[in-house]
Amino acid sequence: MLQTRFDEIRTIFDTLHAVVYVADLEDYRLLYLNRRGAALFGEEWQNKTCYEVLQSGIKDPPCNFCTNAILSGHELNDPPHEWEFLNTVNQRWYQCTDKVIRWTDGRKVRLEIAIDITERKEMERMKEEFLAAVSHEMRTPLTAILGFAEYLLENPSTPEERLSFLTTLHQEGERLNTLIDNFLELQRLQAKKSDYQFVPLPVAELYEKTLGHFTYTAPTHHFVIACPKGLPPVPGDRQGLEQLLENLVSNAVKYSPKGGIITLGAHREGSEIILWVRDRGIGIPPGEEDRIFERFYRVDRSNRREIAGTGLGLALVKEIAAAHEGRVWLERPPGGGSTFFVALPLSRRDSQSKVPPGPETPPTPEGQKAVFNPDESR
Ligand code: ADP
Fold this sequence. Notes:
By secondary structure, the protein is of the alpha+beta class. It has 9 helices and 12 strands.
């Protein structure tokens, strides 16, 4: 009967996704370690101390974070002592619940239940880092807006000065707006909370819509759409892919300050549609290919310092592509500039519906700005 009860309880503790152990309050000897604990810290735990088995590099035992001293003063019905710590053997964070209990021979001992919270800790760290960086980035446009507005309020100004200051105010306002938009979307994607609706989207149509936003704002740039006829539509979220393309084209414009041709191309490679945006601008130095996709990372070179940005655009491009089970990368085309590629699968793993090839992509209308050019290649 007693053995059955013992086996039941042992089964429960061994199945827990937590490290559970019991140690002596005076000599630190381990009296019990569940299966998960033994799997992580070694099967040979009998007759050893808790710090020998569960910690490493403890020179002057016991550990300086040991809770024995606290628990020695506890009564059996006192609430548990809760704490978090970074394990010195596997470098993972644990949330620990320590409680004094009575052992089979009558003495008081320490029971600890330790749950791995490493992922939560990492999320918390990223969130703090992210918030600190965002507030820092917001300060620059805000300082400019407040400074120019104050100057206009307190000083007489000519109509030309007013126009110039208001233009700056508008630009800085736009910058703040983009920062907030990108920031919120990035947060949503990282928290997997975006409500993306996947529908078949004709690529040329997406490109035309994107370029519509740049016709007036980028008059020195010439845009070319290079989509082969018969390209199947890509399954994607319309708003998500529009934001992805807008970020790529806006970078292509920003980082080609002297103007030039910007090409939006696409082709099919096996089960993927490859979208690409090529500019003939200042290019990206070797060694920066991966870092430019990190949040808030901006290439710091004298020729680009005056180009405004937040370092969030490409991070968002990467997240949106990932939410479509796709990937992004950069290549340097011969002749200078940059080509950003986005590979999107024609059928998504987590979707029931496969998108069949066709119908044909509507041909891009020939126009002054967007021209269909089948000869365009990478
Ligand atoms: P930003 O808001 O700074 O443009 P992004 O995340 O969009 O942030 O881009 C990160 C960095 O990558 C930019 O600061 C810039 O240095 C570089 N970059 C991005 N796109 C281009 C491009 N088309 N040509 C040259 N450099 C680029």
